[in-house]
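Example S7 (structure tokens).
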């Protein structure tokens, strides 16, 4: 995969019992994340995908969020990577968007779209989709 062929990276969350962390924490995925970040391209994550970003090292010292339910265990895990955890649905820091549950996916998509095509075009799309 050539990073220069893409405008942004979007990573959905997943379930531990189905191997999400094995894949998301792989060196190949970490290198991909670091590559997009080094080129200051937008990176969006939904739910626990923020942990993959943190594992890659790009969230150290930054504000972010991740899955907030089940006693906040995943948010605690995120904090262990040196991330300033914000318990908000969507957190955007620099070129990085994180969110705290699957329900936030449309908001993350609209935030990413706003970065890519501007607020006006994003609003047109959001309205056309009934949001």
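Recovered sequence:
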């Amino acid at each position: 995969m050539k990073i220069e062929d893409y405008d942004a990276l979007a990573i959905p969350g997943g379930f531990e019992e189905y191997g999400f962390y094995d894949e998301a924490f792989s060196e190949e995925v970490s290198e991909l994340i670091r590559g997009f970040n080094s080129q200051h391209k937008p990176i969006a994550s939904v739910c626990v995908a923020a942990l993959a970003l943190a594992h890659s090292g790009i969230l150290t010292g930054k504000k972010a969020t991740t899955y907030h339910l089940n006693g906040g265990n995943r948010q605690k895990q995120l904090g262990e990577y040196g991330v300033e955890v914000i318990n908000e649905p969507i957190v955007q820091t620099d070129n990085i968007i994180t969110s705290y549950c699957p329900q936030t996916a449309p908001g993350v998509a609209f935030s990413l779209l706003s970065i890519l095509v501007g607020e006006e075009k994003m609003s047109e799309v959001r309205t056309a989709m009934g949001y």
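Notes on this example. The chain has a mean pLDDT of 97.
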